[in-house]
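Contributing new complexes? Match this layout with guanosine-5'-monophosphate.
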Amino acid sequence: MIPTDAMFGHNRKKMANTHLYKPNLVIVISGPSGSGKSTVIDALCKADPTLKLSVSATTRNPRRGEVDGVNYHFLSKAEFEAHIQQGSFLEWAAYGDNLYGTLKSEIVAAREAGKDAVLEIEVKGSLQIRDHARDLAPARSLLIFIVPPSFATLEKRLRRRQTESEKELRQRLDIAKSEVLQIRHYDYWVHNPEKGIAQAVKQIQAIIAAERSRIDDKLIETINPLLGVEGVD
Ligand code: 5GP
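Output block (do not edit by hand):
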């Protein structure tokens, strides 16, 4: 049956003009070091102004070109530990010899800006977010894992960027192996082949579009008044 004006009543025009989706996603993107996730996420956020990248806190030293407050909030170990004590983190984890964490204030800032938050974080932190969904309410998590073409490619990319010592590079490759084994805890995977960034971005956009179309309580609350109906069936 084709809906008629009578079915929608005076709300029909309003419905056509209303964005039913209210941003409430915490989009977590992980993948081994060298999987190309930063480049993919950068392109993703540039293409969609309704996404806001969360700036993580870390105790690691800035790499050449990295800016405090833009790439990371660079903290001393004592500052990071004070944030842990104060309960400022949504999640945090050790990676190699450093600590990394997502400040709750980053998620609040995304929500206040009317955007979905995007987190580029490693696996232990992602699982904390998935397991403590209540801390996110009314937002919900979406976990995406970026899969590189091969370990040889990871190693090649890490060597090419020359940002780690040999010891750190080996450590990152070891961590990469253990991270790939955790993929079953994610909602979606995306392949990032050599020269395939555009394809990876497109796939993530499709996943986000599907998640934004999910029917949940929040949508029902929004859609019922627009359709002029009340209550729950
Ligand atoms: P990098 O030192 O290469 O910038 O980051 C090392 C790892 O830490 C990457 O896997 C990156 O995704 C992860 N990472 C960055 N920020 C966070 C964060 O806020 N929390 C967690 N758990 N991991 C993070």
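Reviewers usually confirm one structural detail per submission. For this one: The two ends are 20 Å apart (CA to CA).
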